[in-house]
Amino acid sequence: VAAAPRRRGDRPRAARCRVVESLYSNSAYHGAAMCAAHIATELEAFLALVERKHGLTRSAIARRGCYLSHETGTHATPASSCAANEIHALRQCFGADDLRRLVLVNTKCLTGHPMAVGVEDVVAALALSRPRTPPPPCPAGTVVDEYFGGGLTLCGDGARPCSYALRFAAGFGSQVAFVLYASA
User: Fold this and answer.
1) How far apart are CA 69 and CA 63, in angstroms?
2) Number of helices (H) and strands (E), helices first, in the chain?
């Protein structure tokens, strides 16, 4: 439980959510790069597990959820950046229509890449306790790399209900973890 930010005189408010499902895997692909195919395969396996075990479709997640990315906001090349690998996996697993509905949230554009990947879990809990998509951390006029193409909803406007948060974390050696949170 994380305490939500508050104004002077406000009572503390707890952020509440529940873990629907999680998946961790390691392809041992490479010590310093992510494997796009591995990320897409594992995301597909995770979403299929959620659909089969919990009856929750990827369309429902896209319509009422947000995706908390691992990427840092620094795009090196289409072949090696975390962002490119994540967008590839999202496009492959959600398809164009559902991906257009899914709000992509990134905290590392504000924090940089801290050791470990726990900041996004707190943001997910807070977003689900509101229940609205997180407000945009991206500055107005942010330019989206043309490699990523259109059909992406970056950051959100804070106005759409948010019932699910899909969380992705990655590490060297193509270690990947997915967690799906839902509002409690």
Assistant:
1) 17
2) 5, 8
